[in-house]
Structures are given as C-alpha cells and as structure tokens.
Amino acid sequence: MLRFLVLYTALALGANVAQAADLDAIKSGQMESLVTYDEPLPLPPFTVTDESGDEHSMKDFEGKVVLINFWATWCPPCREEMPSLNALQKEFGEDGFQVMTIATGGSNSPEKVAAFFDKEGIDVLPRFHDDANFAARAMGVLGLPVSVLVDKNGHEVARMIGGAEWDSPEAKKVIQALIDED
Predict the structure, then answer these.
(1) Would you say 85 and 67 are in contact if contact means Cβ atoms under 8 Å apart?
(2) Which has more confidence, 29 or 75?
(3) Backbone dihedral region of 88: left (phi > 0), alpha (psi from -120 to 50 degrees) or beta?
(4) Residues 104-118 pLDDT 10s
(5) Position 137 pLDDT exceeds 60
(6) Helix-strand-coil percent breakdown of the chain, rounded to 5?
(7) Sheet holding 146-150, edge to edge
(8) Separation CA 30–CA 107 (nearest Å)
(9) 49-73 confidence digits (pLDDT tens)
(10) Which long-range contacts (CB under 8 A, 24 or more apart) does 22-26 make?
(11) Which segments of the chain are extended strands (E)?
(12) CA–CA separation, 103 and 118 (whole Å)
C-alpha cells in the first residue's frame, strides 16, 4: 500500500502539464495553479461513507465529471471554499457533474459536518466521510484542502492543492470543458 501511495503521489504531482481537454490552454486566474497531466491517471480504489453509514465508491459517479474535495471542519481554507463548491454544484449538477466532498480524519464527525453545512447554507453537497483517512491516503492527499478533477472515464485529470473559488468564471470554464469532452 505504501509503495502504491508513493507511486501515485509521484505520478500526480510530478507529471507534466497538458491532457485530453487541453485544460492548460484555458487555465487562467486562480486556475493557473491547477496541476494537469500528460495522460489522465487511473484512480486507486477507495470507499467513503455517507451520513447514514453507507459506503460509496467512484463507481457511483460513472459517466460524470467529478470534483473530489478533501477537506476538514477545522481547516480555514477548506471552510472558505465550501460555499463556492456548493454554488458550482448548483450550477453544473444537472449536466453530468458532481462535487464530492470528503471530510477526512476522525475529528470530522457527521454532526460537526452537518452543523457547519447548516450554518453556512451548504445545501446541495453530499456529506461523505473518510474517518481513518484511507481515501485521502489512497489519493496521495498530503494536506488540506485538495481538490481532484475526475473525467467521465473515472481518471484524474487535474489537481488543486489549496483552496480555490470554484464558482469563479475561470473554474467554470475548466469544468465546462471537461463536461463537453466526448
């Protein structure tokens, strides 16, 4: 497992820029920090749980563009970007797109996540949990927040380390390019 994590992290962070939708050509503003790859990366298998304790995997989102957001209730940049993720989901959720928020670590109880979402008016995002950090480790997440863009084929095509305004025109342009890709 450790070897896979090191290899996956090296591939994700050390890959050269570019990819099928040519995201590099359209990145601007904050999205210039988005790391893209020569070739889309296969995702490692992982599961997360929802508020009811049911397990979910990426198979639940087949055929959709997915923005996986690893975050924590105690993380200020994570908390700051959550309203923009909610707005992005509201705008693109009907178009084969899903934001998948994953609260990582044991200190993010379903009750804490629910209280934060309710206080901030986060009303369309799923509340997934990764209490033991298995998903975060599998995905090579070394700090928070980290957002991973997954294409319709279930491959990682880009990664943002740090917070972002996901409902900005620049971010929407990147998301739309992936949605429009055949």
Answers:
(1) yes
(2) 75
(3) alpha
(4) 998 999 999 999 999
(5) yes
(6) 40, 25, 40
(7) 35-42, 155-161, 146-150, 65-71, 97-104, 128-130, 48-49, 55-56
(8) 29
(9) 999 999 999 999 999 999 999 999 9
(10) 22/177, 23/157, 23/158, 23/174, 23/177, 23/178, 26/173, 26/174, 26/177
(11) 35-42, 48-49, 55-56, 65-71, 97-104, 128-130, 146-150, 155-161
(12) 15
Sequence letter at residue 108: N
Alpha-carbon distance of 62 to 172, in angstroms, equals 21
CA dist., res. 147 & res. 34, Å (int): 9
Strands 146-150 and 155-161: antiparallel
Return the bridge partners of 148, or none.
Answer: 68, 159
Distance CA 53, CA 74 (A): 22
Domains of the chain: 2-180 (3.40.30.10)
Could you tell me the sign of the dihedral formed by the alpha carbons of 125, 63, 1, 35, in that order? negative
Instruction: Specify the amino acid at residue 143.
Output: G
Q: Are 112 and 73 in contact, with CB atoms under 8 Å apart?
A: yes
